[in-house]
Amino acid sequence: MHAEGPTFKLFNVLKSPVQVYAEVGEHILHLNALIGRSISLEYKGQAICKSCKRDFESLFRMGCCKKCFFESPLAGASILRPELSRAHLNIEDRDLDHEKSFQLQPHVVYLADAGQIKVGVTRLDQVHNRWMDQGAGRARIIAKTNNRHEAGLIEVELKSLYSDKTNWKQMLNNKSDGRELKEEAIHAKESVSNNLKRFFDLDGEQQEIHYDYNIAPANINSFSLKDSLKFKDDLFGLRGQYLIFSSGNAINLRSHEGLVLSWSY
Ligand SMILES: [Zn+2]
User: Fold this and answer.
1) Per-residue pLDDT reduced to its tens digit, 66-120
2) How far is CA 47 from CA 27, 149, 150, 259, in A?
3) Residue 63 C-alpha to ligand 1 middle, in angstroms?
4) Domain ranges for the chain
5) How far is Cα 158 from Cα 120, in angstroms, rounded to an integer?
6) Cα 23 to ligand 1 centroid, rounded to whole Å
7) Run of H or E residues at 123
């Protein structure tokens, strides 16, 4: 079978194990069903910017061309740094209507364990997707806020306790952090400024998440089709936005967002 199209974020469905779908052109590939089968992936030097939808040979960052990365609200300051949100003050970064609809809605601060505990911020209605995208083995909501800015302020204060990044190597090696998330929620609440404590929820939702990926192959290595252009191997497992192959090579599809890939399977 063959499919070709721009790369989107993998769509994860919270089941045990997580069910993973890739939208490729007109096809929706159910990747769990392809485990054990040979897959070939090829990047032929075409990409589509997710903001302006124009064709490029490659993209700059976050699925955007260079112009859109610096101008589009899809790559605005508060996407990567929630504390920079200004929509609650009626202040525009790039497109105030877009920023209001995105930033002025309930957000959560969570702790997720994908090898080591990290802190993160996301919209309340996105929280399970976010945890699965990051390949977290367990995660817990520790605070709920009215908007993105408030959640960002909490995250900034907690960066002295926890990383805000997922370590992909630990995640793909199925490592986990020994600490209890509820105890860490209490610890986090004690650590933040008094004006932020009211957002904490010490009984926030906690999830254990299982992936179609139980034993890591030896020598996990992350590769990009931007360098190798073509790759073929047996699909071994799925975790987060990664496809892991029998050889130990793993590809982060999120980092290929917008690149037109050709799939044979
Ligand atoms: Zn663009």
Assistant:
1) 999 999 999 999 998 999 999 999 999 999 999 999 999 999 999 999 999 999 9
2) 18, 33, 36, 4
3) 9
4) 2-67+213-264, 76-208
5) 9
6) 21
7) strand 117-123
